[in-house]
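R.M. (postdoc): so does anyone remember the format we settled on? I'll just put the structure tokens first.
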């Protein structure tokens, strides 16, 4: 079994991949919370965050749609 981990914008990575070449994808998209998400490690030494604010629901839907289309393209039947 061969496993690969890719780091970067998934849309860029997916567009460079061959069609019907992937067995499994895991997706954890932003959820249109319209706020900045912040998570600290248990010891509070490090903090991670991302901005989950969108100009509109249309922009958010377009973001997801583009990525879902590419995920569908690269997944094996």
């Amino acid at each position: 079994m061969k496993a690969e981990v890719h780091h970067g914008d998934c849309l860029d990575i997916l567009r460079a991949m061959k069609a019907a070449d992937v067995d499994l994808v895991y997706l954890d998209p932003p959820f249109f919370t319209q706020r900045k998400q912040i998570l600290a490690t248990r010891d509070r030494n490090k903090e991670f965050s991302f901005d989950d604010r969108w100009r509109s629901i249309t922009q958010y839907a377009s973001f997801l749609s583009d990525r879902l289309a590419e995920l569908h393209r690269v997944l094996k039947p």
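R.M.: ...and that's the designed sequence above, right after the tokens. Also worth knowing: The mean pLDDT is 94. The two ends are 18 Å apart (CA to CA).
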